[in-house]
Design the sequence.
């Protein structure tokens, strides 16, 4: 990965950290923000994996981003759960920021978190952990 791609990966890790730390919160606005960051982590992982393979994508619609990769013959190894729930995850981008009555299940956020972490830590976006000195 290039330096810029590594920095972009850092943004994804920040989204995942926010998700991990707030998806079980008793504070509903914090849970909604966690779901928003789940959507962001998934969207950015798609864009990073596509970028590494030479395709620059734009937009927030997860299903559309996946279809663009498929259409160009670029396999970014999207996890089945993310493909299956792409439409739902896409709605989290705006609904969780502007609609405080939106309900997002904690188990849905947990599935998104686990799938995205595993996906980011695989293939061409895997980064070997640094050894502590």
Sequence:
């Amino acid at each position: 990965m290039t330096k810029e791609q590594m920095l972009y990966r850092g943004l994804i890790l920040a989204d995942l950290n926010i998700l991990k730390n707030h998806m079980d919160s008793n504070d509903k606005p914090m849970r909604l923000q966690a779901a928003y960051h789940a959507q962001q982590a998934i969207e950015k992982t798609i864009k990073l994996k596509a970028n590494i393979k030479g395709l620059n994508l734009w937009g927030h619609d997860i299903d559309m981003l996946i279809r663009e990769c498929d259409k160009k013959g670029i396999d970014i190894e999207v996890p089945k759960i993310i493909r299956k729930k792409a439409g739902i995850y896409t709605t989290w981008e705006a609904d969780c920021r502007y609609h405080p009555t939106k309900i997002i299940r904690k188990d849905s956020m947990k599935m998104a978190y686990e799938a995205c972490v595993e996906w980011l830590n695989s293939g061409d976006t895997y980064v070997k952990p640094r050894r502590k000195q």
The helical segments are 3-22, 28-52, 62-71, 80-84, 86-98, 106-120. The mean pLDDT is 96.
